[in-house]
Amino acid sequence: MFCVRSPKEVLKRTSKDCPRVIAAGLDSGAAFAPFRMAIVTLFFAIGISASIARADDEENFGPGSAGTELGSDEDDGVPALAAARSSALGGLSIEGLLYRRKGLATVPFTEAGDTVNQTIGFTRFDSSDLQGRDYAPGLRMSLQASVLDQPIELSAFFVTPFSFEQTKLGMSSAGVADTDMVYANPTGTDIFSSAATSAASDQIYGLHAHHESKVYGGEANITSLLGIPGLTLGARGIYFGETLSTTTMDDLNAVNNPPPTGTTGYQNRDRVGIRVDNRLVGLQLGLQHMFDVGGGLRVGGSVKGGLYNNFVDRNRTFVSENRVDLRSFETSDHKDVFAQAVEFNPRVEFKLAEGTYLTASGQFLWLNNVSTALPQYDAIANIQNDHDVRAKDDVYFYGGSLGLTILLDESSPVGSSLPAFSYAGTGDYDAGGYTGGIDAIDERVAELETTALRKGNSRVSLEVSGWINRMALYWNDGVKSDVYIADNVASRSRVNFNGAAKIARGWSAGYFMSLGLDDQASNDLSQTVSSGDGNVELRHSAWWLRNNQLGTVTVGLTSTATDDIILKDVGGIMPGAANIATIGGSFMLRRSSWHEQGDGALVTNASGSVNTTLNDISGGASVDTLRRNAIRYDAPRFSGQWGNVDVSAAWGEDDFYDVAVEHSINYNDFKFRFGAGYLRDTTEGRVVVDHPEYFRDRREYKGSASILHLPTGLFGTAAYVRRTFHGLEEFDAAGTPGAVYGENTTGKVTPPGTNRPPLDYLYTAFGLRRHYWSIGDTSVYGEYARVQDAITGLREAGLHEVTDSTLEMLGAAISQDIDAAGMDVYAGVRVYSFDTEGALGRAAGNPSVTTYTISPMPLTDIMFAYAGTRIKF
Fold this sequence. Notes:
By secondary structure, this protein is mainly β. The chain has helices at about 20-25, 80-85, 255, 440-450, 615, and strands at about 50-55, 90-100, 110, 130, 135-145, 150-170, 180, 205-220, 230-250, 270-295, 295-320, 330-355, 355-370, 395-410, 430, 435, 465-475, 480-485, 495-505, 505-520, 535-545, 550-560, 630-635, 640, 645-650, 655-665, 670-685, 695-710, 715-725, 760-775, 775-790, 800-820, 825-840, 855, 860-870. A 16-stranded antiparallel β-barrel has the order 17-19-20-21-22-23-25-26-27-28-29-30-31-32-33-35. Strands 1, 2, 4, 5, 6, 8, 9, 10, 11, 12, 13 and 14 form a twelve-stranded mixed β-sheet that branches. It starts with 17 loop residues before the first helix and ends with a strand.
């Protein structure tokens, strides 16, 4: 994809002027969709696009162009709009996509029964029987910019999953049909040592199959390479993945009685799961051009090809529900192979109004030497000895796109929407009180007294502020999808009341109260809950007393020292983005090989009473310390040539305490922010006769850092949390721990009383922040998160004890500041993947088996796409 450029392709330029136009990156010959950074990024699938281009310096317009306005003619007869667009250095493009995938390969799932019954018919079931939609909507987005005076273009695209499935029943009947799975014969394989062990895959009654494909990618490109119009070179990353799952049902009970409430026979099922992930990373070279045909119409296109290293990962699982002790397998294989990709985009653009263009293009993408799921199927019985990832296939996508183009102003590196660095005496205000010198305190108090509302005590000011933050949230859990309107809890809608009064020179006091709107919270909605509780949450209710020499003391319901310590950012990412559970935290995980069960595939614990959610496996919103009733102390700010340093500490009810240090500095061309802290959260023990005292004892080390390079706008942000568990749970007579504190493992695999392993949480974001137009800064970024062992040791994910759990999140987003209205507009997409295994169960009906079998629990990916606005008041 490429941004729409000038509506006139031919500019009357001298050869001397042309290189300067070309270097600007949006000449008609440079209108090619370049190759972008190999970061796999995702964007919300919407059906319309906006492209934002900015004009270059006057000197790039050539002689006689100074002062020319859009819509007028230059002295040489070339429309000024064409000149402006041809000399632009960058822009933003969003384009709605519709992709189709070329048909799946035909692979059999079933075959005739064993030799004795070869003369009996069987029910044929192969991949050609799968039904679903072979098209999917998506989004492609690109941003043009100049980094160190070099025009570049960043781009990303995302397509929603292609899903196919089918169920057949009554596939075997005595004397009529004998249908086996293709992997069940012959015996003597890794899974089936004899005919008796293949019962649920031999003479099957029913079969359900589900197939899903995903494709998305990102690129970073140098435009007008070597000053050659239309020639581009860059790096690109493409993700292509597939999953295939089947469930065989040995009899009718296995169909009608899904767990955990089924009667005898409901466990007579074999489940197969295959997942292949192709991550193509490499370089591309391409050409692009647009031709003016008059009447505001331009035609052209782009073609690009690349060579890649394909990092192929294959994961396969096989679980027999009735004998998990004998047949529960998981293998993972990795291989690097050489792959190729070619993309072709014919394009048309039409002028709608001054500076506004409608664009449409064709989309053709070919990937070669990739691994697909279907060819892996018949070898599943040799799951332990087959290590061939079969990266020999090619896949082909084609479709179209529709977009809108808007011409905007010239950009600068970073606009005024980024807060300036604050030295001692400048005076910033926050919920904890004032920061800055004595003069700043006096000035702020005077301002509040003259401008704020007054109620009751006229000596203390009243200021009402806050914001509304609403968004559209699209979700897809691999089976179902929907769109909700939600309040973005990453930065919840709220109403704040604060005020202050001057007591004496250097002394002041004040209060802060905040109410959060919780009627449609983004972390409360799920696959089964589409509306909120309509609640109003008391977020803050505290008073503070400050002395400029001694510091500030705050008492009440408030933030502790480490609250927001993981949210340091100067890149302009969505507020609260580092706390990933705030969007979709209550969505339940879904078993990837249980598609025939519908919502029964949503993961519950072993008893079926508690759901396992994204909130559970990500560490929860509490990775950013929760507010509580506490006493907090903030030391006076230390300021010097090496920046500002703030130190704080807090103590809360039931023996909670934390400490934090924060540092901020503007040094030469860089802005840097850093924060780190430690907390300990304990609960008083419960004394039980003949038992030790049971208690909670959690400790966290956490922090974040963010850096911005002002001339280029490049930034990076990272946050980390390590949570350790040191408490003790109460165990019942059977040795089963309670779930009061969540400090210990369940004791099914590990010894009773063992503390859970530490939780490790990492979030990163990297991107570009530029002042592309006068309304405010624009930030475009990719993000990645990884959470390790958030549910390890617990009774979660349908397992009696989780022995390993990992979450990975990959996303991309854009945030636009609108300074004049106190707004920020944002959109993005996140894809979550999971890797979980643990104690699934023991042999059914065999009391002599006392040990639990470690088994995989494949889970479907969850995707969220969102777009919203936060407006302050």
